[in-house]
Amino acid sequence: MSGYLDDLSGHVSDSVKGGGTRRADAQRNRERILQAARDLVREPGELKLNAVAKACGIGQGTLYRHFPTREDLLAEVYRHEVDELVAAAPRLLATHQPLDALAEWFDRVAAYARVKRDVFAAVEAATWRDLAAHSLGPIGEAVELLLAAGRSAGGVRADAEARDVIVLISWLSRLDDAELDARGPRLLSILVDGLRAHHP
To answer: What pTM value is reported for the model?
Structure first.
């Protein structure tokens, strides 16, 4: 059991330490798999699990232990991206003024939009509908956290709603890479300006 101490000596047993090392190795492998899949899903053609295993230098057996199917892997790539996006909101508010935090968060939204587009194009319709349904709540909560901080500070207009922002940023995932690079920053800048409170 994690944290089990040998008698009263205060020393963690070797078997527990070994288990902890194995868990840490497994977590590192999982992260490497997700990063490789995130990179490879952008390439033309169907994502191949053997290509993912080769890219991160692990055996296919190790990959299959983490992700038995291609859809399992792609779904987790998307969920991981959502988790990173959602976790960024409070971190940014801790170090930035609310409106600046919102602008920085929108920069991350552009990267999320690429992953969403590529993953949703590669999985079955039922899978992406399920992923979209489950990610809407956490992303909406992150947007509301940023907007609420901005409203409290007087920098964000009082009538701005999280749903408004989600509808507008959802269009980013419909753009190809060239258009996202060319238009994305400008579109997000326009959105920030539209959310800004205008004081007489």
So the answer is: 0.80
